[in-house]
Amino acid sequence: ERSESERFRRFTREEIAAAVWPDEASEGISEQAIDSVVRRLRDRLSVAGAEGLVATVRGHGFRLMLPEHPV
Predict the structure, then answer these.
(1) In this structure, which of 7, 27, 28, 38 has its CB flanked by the most CB atoms within 10 Å?
(2) What is the mean pLDDT of each successive set of 10 residues along the chain, which is 71 residues long?
(3) Which of 39, 30, 29 is nearest to 62 (CA)?
(4) What's the N-to-C CA distance of the chain in angstroms?
């Protein structure tokens, strides 16, 4: 069973940029580029039947909302 902090982890745009583009300075990566990555992730999760796992947290970034019990 996952803890609440694991299930609802929040990621800033800077954390996402660093994970996707580790060799780039985060200042050089646009919000639109990060939004595009998140959109593609949501699309792929949807195709896999896992909709709603990534939520936008306005002004903070994104939240990964995992199920309570791992599948």
Answers:
(1) 38
(2) 73 92 87 94 93 92 81 58
(3) 39
(4) 11
